[in-house]
Specification:
The protein has about 300 residues and is α/β, with parallel strands linked by helices. It has 9 helices and 12 strands. The strands form 2 sheets. Strands 3, 4, 5, 6, 7, 8, 9, 10, 11 and 12 form a 10-stranded mixed β-sheet that branches. Strands 1-2 form a two-stranded antiparallel ribbon. The longest helix has 23 residues. InterPro entries: HTH-type_LysR_regulators (IPR050950), LysR_HTH_N (IPR000847), LysR_subst-bd (IPR005119), WH-like_DNA-bd_sf (IPR036388), WH_DNA-bd_sf (IPR036390).
Length: about 300
């Protein structure tokens, strides 16, 4: 966005969008309606396209305006957070980290890193969008979040991918299941049992099916679900076994479930950090990303 764009221009735009009225937005921002209109016009000139559709009864964002709303909201929140935090130094400094994260990583892995980070920086807040892979990439590309934790596979030239770790697919079963006695299993050993998989629309399923096809292996599923957490619920209920990324599985001290490596072939997904090419992170996000990479690589 051009350096000629001022914070008040952004506040004017967001105010009109959220309040759906020039009058109400002008009152909320303590400025006249003509002054508010001038700021909107200035912002539209900077962008080079209309951002609002005006009628006698209603105001709504254009398609481009709708696309800009999450980015503008994040920019203003970071600016306001920086103002409050500027008097603080070192560990006491505040801030906001906005990230998009795969639900599997958000549920089991991310809380551990955030807990450790908050011990050093207790005043830094987090907004976490736990989104499927495609939606997470879209959130990064639009600027709705500062970076994402995702699986490799993006071909968007405006995004970069930094590898963090390999996340192997494993077997999840109850502790009283016959396969639980094995140290590891082969794919063929899954066939006699009811298999629980995620839907074909899932990035995990697409990756898994493609890798198995190279070895002429096809999963014969009995239950198909939308979310990995649902598959674990079915496994825990004794309805079958599941194949899912290790990161999506409970810790080893789970009272009912175990995980086992699956070999011949071993299949994994690559987890990494997705960022906008040439983009910059807030100081809070930079610090968190450093810790994230350190913990993940440990």
């Amino acid at each position: 966005m051009s350096i000629n764009c001022e914070i008040l221009d952004l506040r004017a735009f967001l105010g009109v969008v959220e309040l759906e009225s020039f009058n109400r937005a002008a009152d909320a921002l303590h400025m006249s309606q003509p002054a508010l209109s001038r700021r909107i016009q200035k912002l539209e000139q900077v962008i080079g396209a209309p951002l609002l559709e005006r009628t006698t009864r209603h105001v709504s964002p254009t398609a481009l305006g709708t696309e800009l709303v999450p980015l503008v909201r994040r920019m203003l929140e970071e600016f306001d957070g920086s103002l409050f935090a500027v008097r603080d130094v070192g560990p006491n400094r505040g801030g906001l980290v906005t990230i998009a994260c795969l639900p599997t990583a958000a549920f089991y892995f991310l809380p551990t890193v955030i807990r450790q980070f908050n011990e050093d920086y207790p005043n830094i807040r987090f907004r976490i969008l736990d989104l499927p892979a495609t939606d997470g990439l879209r959130a990064v590309a639009s600027g709705e979040v500062e970076f994402g934790i995702n699986i490799m596979g993006t071909s968007d030239p405006d995004l970069t991918f930094e590898r963090l770790a390999e996340d192997p697919f494993v077997l999840a079963a109850r502790k009283d299941h016959p396969l639980a006695t094995k140290q590891w299993v082969e794919w063929a050993e899954l066939e006699p049992y009811h298999l629980i998989t995620v839907h074909r629309s899932s990035g995990n399923r697409t990756l898994l099916d493609a890798a198995l096809a190279k070895s002429n292996i096809k999963l014969r599923w009995f239950y198909e679900v939308t979310h990995l957490s649902t598959s674990l619920g079915l496994v825990e209920a004794g309805l079958g076994i599941s194949v899912l990324p290790r990161m999506a599985t409970p810790r080893e001290d789970h009272p009912f479930l175990i995980t086992r490596p699956i070999r011949n072939p071993e299949i994994s997904r690559t987890i990494g950090v997705v960022r906008r090419r040439g983009g910059t992170l807030s100081p809070a996000a930079e610090r968190f990303l450093e810790m994230l990479i350190g913990v993940w690589g440990a």
